[in-house]
């Protein structure tokens, strides 16, 4: 027998407990390092938190994880038998399954958006082949490849949540496998990380799709020898404008 966690009952219970604690949705969200929109969706029964949020959420609301999964308080005199334990475990698993289904849906949309940007960027780079010198085209394809690789990483492989030690220490370096990102002057944590990831995704995809056309425009406005001389600098300016500036802006806004 499979047990499903009732979203509406879960949301009502979370809402009730939050109000008992005298917290607003925003205050609860800040304690959990999530957005107030996420809390609102939980309470309206539109989504469920990630299984990793279960213990922090229970602690913030003054109940046990078992009570959260049960969508109701348990009296101390009540004993949980083996079948009840199995049921609660199944409900916990359903939280993970729900998150995975949402992730798969997001990835499907993400793949579609990513491929569209790749196609637009390739078309732009091919058009550049007809008007630019060979040395310039090499630079364009190199930067397009970098935008595509790092864009794919942020779209499909980056971790959505940082380890808890980021929230209690000032850390500006993020590492995941061979990938390294250092943001001097920024303390990474689970308050600003979702916005940093979103900015990085958007910036890399826009950079990949738009940059070749910006250089077509530059070719029409400037003499070819000027474009040839300054193309690497122009690409760096584009990368800063599309990626670095939005990331720093998002990190500081949500610090």
Explain what the structure shows:
This protein is mostly helical and 255 residues long. It contains 10 helices and 2 strands. Helix content is 70%, strand content 3%. It has a two-stranded antiparallel sheet. A hairpin with a 2-residue loop joins strand 1 (173-176) and strand 2. Helix 2 crosses helix 3. It starts with 6 loop residues before the first helix and ends with a helix.
**Stretches where pLDDT falls below 50 for ≥5 residues?**
none
Number of helices: 10
- The proportion of residues in beta strands is under 5%
Average pLDDT figure: 80
Question: What is the N-to-C succession of helices and strands?
Answer: HHHHHHHHEEHH
In total, the number of strands is: 2
The portion of residues assigned to helices is: 55-70%
Q: Classify the oligomer.
A: single chain
How can the largest sheet be summarized?
Answer: 2 strands, antiparallel
Adjacency order of strands in the biggest sheet: 1-2
Radius of gyration, in angstroms, nearest whole number: 24 Å
How far the N terminus sits from the C terminus, by CA atoms, comes to: 45 Å
Structural class: mainly alpha
Shape: elongated
């Amino acid at each position: 027998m499979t047990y499903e966690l009732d979203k509406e009952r879960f949301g009502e219970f979370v809402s009730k407990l939050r109000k008992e604690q005298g917290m607003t949705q925003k205050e609860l969200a800040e304690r959990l390092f999530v957005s107030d929109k996420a809390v609102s969706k939980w309470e309206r029964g539109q989504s469920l938190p990630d299984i990793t949020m279960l213990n922090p959420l229970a602690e913030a609301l003054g109940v046990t994880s078992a009570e959260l999964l049960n969508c109701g308080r348990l009296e101390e005199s009540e004993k949980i038998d083996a079948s009840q334990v199995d049921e609660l475990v199944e409900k916990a698993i359903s939280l993970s399954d729900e998150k995975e289904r949402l992730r798969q849906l997001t990835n499907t949309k993400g793949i579609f958006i990513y491929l569209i940007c790749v196609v637009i960027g390739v078309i732009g780079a091919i058009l550049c082949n007809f008007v630019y010198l060979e040395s310039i085209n090499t630079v364009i394809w190199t930067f397009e490849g970098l935008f595509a690789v790092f864009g794919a990483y942020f779209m499909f492989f980056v971790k959505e949540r940082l380890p808890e030690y980021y929230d209690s220490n000032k850390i500006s370096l993020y590492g995941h496998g061979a990938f390294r990102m250092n943001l001097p002057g920024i303390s990474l944590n689970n308050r600003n990380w979702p916005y940093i990831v979103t900015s990085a995704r958007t910036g890399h995809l826009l950079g990949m799709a738009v940059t070749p056309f910006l250089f077509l425009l530059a070719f029409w406005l400037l003499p070819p020898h000027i474009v040839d001389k300054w193309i690497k600098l122009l690409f760096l300016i584009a990368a800063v404008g599309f990626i670095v500036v939005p990331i720093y802006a998002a990190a500081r806004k949500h610090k």
